[in-house]
């Protein structure tokens, strides 16, 4: 048990540090290559912070633990819009343009709802994984197309990212750093998976509880990014991080998990799926009202997360 605990802690720490450094390397490389700020915000950062979920769910599905893989995605999606957004809102008011909130918010709710429908029948087919990945391509196209219409906002976003990351952008160094970060992230995900699964099994926890715990753990990169942005009063980065991560979790992570390990779910909790969708809608409504999420609403989101976690026990 002690070895499993140490393995879990080490894997989680390495996962957070490596995935965060991977995002930094990707942003700096994008800047050095002259890639649009739209791609940095919509693709690089969103995909980077969802990489832990992708790896953990993929490994779980590969090992025939589809229930844990689904619970990991559900737990991560719910944690993003309750724990991550709620904590950030407690630090500062999270606000953005209503037009942007509406577009990306609706897309996020659609992605989360689509994934919930995919697993609600208790079976995940390979073709459903393919459909989710196809939906991801459509979502990426829409995000990029929308963002290209917001040239001024995109230019401001790249300045904000540069201020947060600094101006060190050696292309060769960032390519090497990014590659090392990917290797470490993969190894850390395997370490975390092995340790957490062992602990859960020895404590007699259900597959759902183990999966949700992993989901919360793999949401820590999003939390670290959101809290750092909130401290710097960069509310748009917080919102983009949460919305983008949930879209990638539902479509990319869910799609890959279905392709790697399709099968029958042994323990589908419809209540958890409903909470996942309901919290996404609730966060969207909070953001739409006045174009911001205030501290009181952040506290409600935090309490909702506590209730969700209690539901899994």
Which key features would you list for this structure?
A middle domain of Talin 1, 313 residues, 4 strands, 12 helices, mainly alpha, two-stranded antiparallel ribbon, two-stranded antiparallel sheet
Shape: globular
Question: CATH topology, anyone?
Answer: A middle domain of Talin 1
Kindly name the structural category.
mainly alpha
The share of residues in helices is: over 70%
Question: How is the topology of this model organized?
Answer:
Elements: H1 2-32, H2 37-62, H3 66-91, E1 94-95, H4 98-120, E2 123-124, H5 126-148, H6 151-165, H7 171-202, H8 207-218, H9 220-231, H10 235-260, E3 263-264, H11 270-288, E4 292-293, H12 295-312
Antiparallel strand pairs: 1-4, 2-3
Tell me what the structure shows.
The chain is mainly α. The protein has one domain: NCX, central ion-binding region (A middle domain of Talin 1). It has helices at residues 2-32, 37-62, 66-91, 98-120, 126-148, 151-165, 171-202, 207-218, 220-231, 235-260, 270-288, 295-312; strands at residues 94-95, 123-124, 263-264, 292-293. It has a two-stranded antiparallel sheet. Helix 4 (98-120) packs antiparallel against helix 11 (270-288), helix 5 (126-148) runs antiparallel to helix 10 and helix 7 (171-202) packs antiparallel against helix 8. The protein is globular and about 50 Å long. The two termini are 21 Å apart. The model has no long low-confidence stretch (mean pLDDT 79).
